[in-house]
Amino acid sequence: MSIYSRYGVKRVVNAAFHLTRLGGSTLTPKVREAMDEANKSYVYMWDLIKNGGEHIAKEINAPAAWITSGAFNALVLAAAACMVGDDPEAMRKLPHTEGMKNEIIIQRSARLLVYDRSMEVAGGKFVFVGDENWGCSPEQMERAITDKTAAIHYAYPAMRRSTVCPLEKVLEIGKKYGVPVIVDAAGMTYPKDVQAKFMEMGCDLVAVGGKYVGGPNSTGYIYGRKELIEAISLHSFIGAEAGPKEQSGFYRSLGRGYKLDRQEVIGLLVAFDEWMEMDHHKERFQPAWVKTRKIEKGIKDLPGLKDARIQYYPKSGEGTGYHTIGLQVSLDLSVDETNKVIRSLREGDPEVWVRNWGQSSDFIINAINLQSGDEDIIVHRFKEVFG
Question: Would you say residue 247 has pLDDT above 70?
Answer without folding.
Answer: no
